[in-house]
Design brief:
Elements lengths: L19 H11 L4 H8 L3 H9 L6 H10 L4 H10 L17 H13 L5 E4 L5 E4 L1 H6 L14 H6 L11 H19 L2 H11 L23 E5 L2 E10 L7 H4 L2 E7 L2 H10 L2
Helix pairs in contact: 1-3, 2-3, 9-10
InterPro entries: Cro/C1-type_HTH, Lambda_DNA-bd_dom_sf, MLTR_LBD
GO molecular function: DNA binding
Pfam families: HTH_3 (PF01381), MLTR_LBD (PF17765)
Length: about 280
């Protein structure tokens, strides 16, 4: 299992010197919410929302947080909104190796270890791998050390032509799924670091060994499977991602636990025999 390092922070992409009004307007427009709809949700008036957005009215700290809540602004960017409005950040960003997060680390470790022999890992907002179990280690066997640097990145590991890409039998479908997932996260978080990673991985060439497509499988999957080759066998998994409910810390809010659920009995049997 990998060591849990401090989760690297991502600098807010919304500088405070722009003022809170334009930032709130940008979030509202991105969420495609009218001033009237936002006012009704937040218990305010469209006139007041307009005044806030144009800088004619300075919102209270409570109003900034209320508007951010109804616009589904990520926690890191809520701190940026508060700074832009002249208030102190509300949510701390505690390093993951801080003793204050001992319970979080221990809980995640128990969860992913308890999921063995099936693969499970913990990633941050930029998909850096903070922890992984033996099931993940099995899938990563034979990858070059350059991709396994500390911390390795889940998107690089999967999409790089020297990574898992040549082993994934439905790579084009899985690549499309991962890129769409990243696009949704970029729209939600507006993270420059995540955008940079997206541009990097989209530029990776598709390995020549990846087939254009395979005949339809007789198994009826209930979700898009990851079909990956290991030891001459094709293993099939369905991905599930869990996050913490109602977090009060930026670091915790940006953690995600991904588990790979075996999608067929053959995969179950193979992993149980490989990792008893």
């Amino acid at each position: 299992m990998t060591t849990l390092p401090s989760a690297p922070g991502t600098s807010p992409v919304t500088p405070a010197d722009r003022g809170v009004g334009p930032l709130l307007r940008a979030w509202r427009e991105q969420r495609r919410v009218s001033q009237l709809d936002l006012a009704l949700r937040a218990g305010s008036s469209a006139r007041h929302i307009s005044f806030v957005e144009t800088g004619r009215s300075r919102p209270s700290e409570e109003m900034v947080l209320r508007l951010a809540e109804h616009l589904d602004v990520p926690m890191r960017e809520r701190n940026a909104l508060l700074l832009a409005a002249g208030y102190a950040p509300r949510y701390p960003e505690t390093p993951l190796d801080d003793p204050a997060l001992d319970a979080v680390r221990a809980g995640m470790e128990r969860l992913i270890q308890g999921y063995e022999p099936y693969p499970a890992l913990v990633v941050d907002a930029r998909y850096d791998v903070l922890a992984a179990n033996r099931g993940i280690a099995v899938l990563l066997e034979g990858l070059p050390e350059s991709l396994l640097t500390d911390p390795p990145n889940a998107m690089r590991l999967t999409l790089h032509p020297q990574g898992l890409a040549p082993r994934i039998r439905n790579f084009r479908e899985w690549r499309g799924h991962l890129l769409a997932q990243m696009e949704r996260q970029i729209a939600l978080r507006r993270s420059a670091a995540l955008r940079e990673l997206y541009e990097e991985v989209t530029a990776y060439p598709v390995p020549e060994s990846v087939p254009e497509g395979e005949p339809a499988e007789p198994v009826a999957y209930f979700a898009l499977p990851l079909r990956i080759e290991h030891g001459g066998r094709i293993l099939s998994f369905v991905s599930s991602i869990s996050t913490f409910n109602t977090p009060m810390d930026v670091t915790v809010a940006e953690l995600a636990i991904e588990t790979l659920l075996p999608a067929d009995p053959a995969t179950v049997k193979y992993l149980q025999e490989l990792l008893p």
